[in-house]
From TrEMBL:
Gene3D superfamilies: 1.10.30.50. InterPro entries: HNH_nuc (IPR003615). This is HNH endonuclease. SMART domains: HNHc. It comes from Metabacillus litoralis.
Amino acid sequence: MGHKLKGGELREIYLTDEEIWRIFTIILSNKSVKSSTYKYALIKALIENLYQINEDFELTYDQLAYSFTKVYWNLVVHHDLLNQNSGQTARVASIIKEEQMKSGIPSEMVFDKLDDTLQIKLVSKVKTTMKINVYGALYGDTRGSFYAFDHKKEMLKLNPAVHGFMLNFQRLLVNLTNYHMAAMIEQLNEVPSINYLLGKVESIAKRSSLKPFEKVLLTYFKAECFYCGKKLSDTKRETHVDHFIPWSFVQSDHIWNLVLACNKCNSSKSDRLPTRSYLEYIIDRNQVLTDKKEDTSITTLMSNYKTDKIIMLYDYSIKNGFDSLWIPLKA
């Protein structure tokens, strides 16, 4: 059984887009054995961490387990969708539900607002379950061609060809994964319709508040709008934190993609990409953060950041349909 594997090497490195699409089609279709929603959650975790890989295309189990836990926290705690398995209750769902009941956590509590100790505890338990039931299963379905994994090192290494493919078709893959995950959850739980579920499955990775990032940015930069230069203040919620490249594409929150913005720019920019001239500005801004090596918290926040990554992210977002570029409105 694939899920019992403790490790696996890449069996194929050179894959065409057509070959990768064929494998994805099998994973998402009825041709793949889908006894739980785990495979979808792992794909979502991989997409959320596409820009956090190191130079060897590796991701740690902790990175993936954190994203994976957020997926099920949203479904189990926020929406009481406990059935994620066609047999007995999925272990990840049980872990989260048990902790919610034990700690008396209200259903509206967002995962990133949990006490750090509790977050670490939950992620550690989920990571153990992923070793048993997740990595080997998707590895088997992809015939060992998408990634290598090693339980001892607790590392997953993406096939570079698959990484490039997922970047190129990221938006489509997100939509396909969300749809098929919602379809399976609908079969396992008593819910009105798949349309009702899609919103629940989609709203997973976004943080409840970007205030912690605002404090960090205000520590190192002037209280000015990144886009128009307007001075910012705390009155009337004038200071905002904006995803330079839209969150709907990035699917995660990283300080190197976050900027201070005024209400006017934040509202008018919405889900659009700034014109390319601003790319140079954020590259320079990020260099300032990268140089703060004496501040270990900044070093951690900027881990795995490279200038090439945000350029690549910008270019791939355009390829994925974010081609209606935005410029600040005149004062």
